[in-house]
């Protein structure tokens, strides 16, 4: 299903390996090794069913509305543990029961807002006025100081960056923040799994994939959930399967 340049180059004992590169403008990892990108495995079942377990299940822990929650944390906009997209959909459409179409529309609105395109129709809402203020303040500091430091890591984004604009700067900040928080989470996850058979096998930005062994007990999944959620601040969803067709 995949076409690596050298089929044997990144396989050891029938285990396929990959590599992440953190050294790019935002620090958000890219994934490519031997021409295969496992951070973007195609959705087709054939591409996903070719992966085999060593344990009992592939278990994916997926953050709910991750970038949206990270941004809301920066602008001090409170979200509950319910679906972030659904919460905002109820605000946009002023109703308590949201249709699938409205939910998907809200996801699109949120996606555009995260990347700086605030919808005019809802620009008066608190979340969007706060996002707008956040973008403007970032840009003001960037122009006045010649740089802005990313939260957590302190990574500097300087005026040496090409073709920068307010929305792009905010996007760089959010990608760096996501990466920094994930690195700290991965550190705790790997430490927790050190003496267990369950292993972390894939990192895809807003989700972690584990090769789970039932003998480790369901409390292992509960503990991993606690680590990722940080006291319920960043809720996660579970998916599991015998292959990657989650």
Concise summary:
By secondary structure, the chain is α+β, with helices and mostly antiparallel strands.
Mean pLDDT: 92
Oligomer: single chain
* Largest sheet report: 4 strands, antiparallel
Rg over C-alpha atoms, rounded to the nearest angstrom = 20 Å
Distance between the termini: 18 Å
Molecular structure report:
With 246 residues, this protein is α+β, with helices and mostly antiparallel strands. It has one domain (11-241). Helices cover 40% and strands 15% of the residues. It contains seven helices and ten strands. The chain has helices spanning 45-49, 66-75, 84-93, 100-114, 126-145, 166-192, 218-229, and strands spanning 11-12, 15-16, 20-21, 30-31, 57-63, 147-149, 156-158, 199-203, 207-212, 236-241. The strands form four sheets. A four-stranded antiparallel beta sheet has the order 8-9-5-10. A two-stranded antiparallel sheet has the order 1-2. A two-stranded antiparallel ribbon has the order 3-4. A hairpin with an 8-residue loop joins strand 3 (20-21) and strand 4. It is globular and about 55 Å long. The mean pLDDT is 92.
What distinguishing features does this structure have?
246 residues, alpha+beta, 4-stranded antiparallel β-sheet, two-stranded antiparallel sheet, 10 strands
């Amino acid at each position: 299903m995949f076409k690596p340049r050298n089929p044997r180059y990144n396989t050891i004992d029938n285990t396929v390996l990959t590599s992440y590169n953190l050294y790019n403008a935002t620090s958000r990892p890219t994934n490519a090794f031997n021409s295969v990108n496992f951070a973007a495995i195609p959705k087709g079942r054939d591409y996903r069913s070719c992966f085999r377990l060593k344990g009992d299940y592939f278990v994916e822990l997926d953050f709910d509305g991750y970038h949206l929650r990270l941004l809301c944390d920066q602008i001090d906009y409170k979200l509950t543990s319910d679906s972030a997209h659904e919460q905002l959909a109820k605000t946009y459409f002023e109703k308590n029961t949201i249709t699938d179409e409205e939910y998907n529309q809200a996801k699109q609105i949120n996606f555009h807002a995260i990347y700086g395109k605030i919808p005019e129709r809802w620009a008066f809402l608190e979340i969007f006025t706060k996002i707008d203020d956040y973008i403007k303040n970032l840009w003001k500091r960037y122009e006045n100081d010649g740089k802005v430091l990313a939260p957590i890591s302190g990574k500097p984004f300087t005026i040496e960056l090409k073709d920068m604009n307010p929305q792009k700067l905010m996007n760089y900040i959010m990608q760096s923040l996501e990466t920094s928080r994930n690195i700290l989470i991965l550190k705790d996850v790997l430490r927790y799994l050190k003496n267990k058979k369950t292993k972390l096998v894939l990192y895809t930005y807003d989700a972690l994939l584990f090769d789970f062994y039932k003998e480790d007990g369901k409390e292992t999944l509960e503990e991993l959930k606690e680590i990722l959620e940080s006291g319920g601040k960043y809720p996660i969803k579970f998916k599991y399967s015998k292959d990657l067709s989650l």
